[in-house]
């Protein structure tokens, strides 16, 4: 081994004598594993192997860089000015453009009710925009279907079915707060009909008035119907043989009088309510102890000689 131009080998001889206890020099190993270094440790084969594996590991291939997008957008080809004629499109389909038969089928699904409709007048409070407080208004019930608010044409079609296909009941409200707005009062009844001109399409109307016999409260029902030939039929259900029914029979006869007969069912119902009210006011006496009902001055009728009901109501 050559070191700074000197030839050092195992056969080299020196001109000094080694002291006792001195290790043989040159040593067989050098570096950090030399026996002359204090605290030297044996080589760790696992660490050497790990270093060799890292050196022998193949280098990773460099990732290819993506080309940067150009700031200038590429301009596409200009659209051609020559084209074929466009095919004609169908007109947009609206609900009011479909045939009337199909619209009637839709109305028949959402407008008719399975039960009888009770008509009422209710007081409501409406706030006025830009003013303090609110004002009281009278609102008609039942409310008309929402589909009737789409257009004038749909309103006319829907309400004609709504009033023709349903049966409306006009009777005194059981709530004492609404007694002053009773729908059986002829004045409120006429206002209810005047509130909607479509009520001329009515075909079935029921009027119920309170009556009392021996402290038993019941209702006298008048039924008005219009058939397919625009003829009106009237009847009542007061069929108690021991009590007088002359008032009810007279009202039905007057309503069906061909001289004063009308094809408008709303007008006929209002006329029946007015005539009954006037007849009770003439024949009866108001009894404040019977919730404002009227009683007859005589116990028996002068025509049929049957007993009168104890009390009858007019509103």
Automatic annotation (TrEMBL):
Domain of life: Eukaryota
InterPro entries according to UniProt: AN11006-like (IPR038883)
Region listing for Disordered, in residue ranges: 35-86
Basic residues composition-biased segments: 60-70
UniProt cross-references to PANTHER family, sorted A to Z: F-BOX DOMAIN-CONTAINING PROTEIN
UniProt name for this protein: Uncharacterized protein
Organism placement in taxonomy: Eukaryota, Fungi, Dikarya, Ascomycota, Pezizomycotina
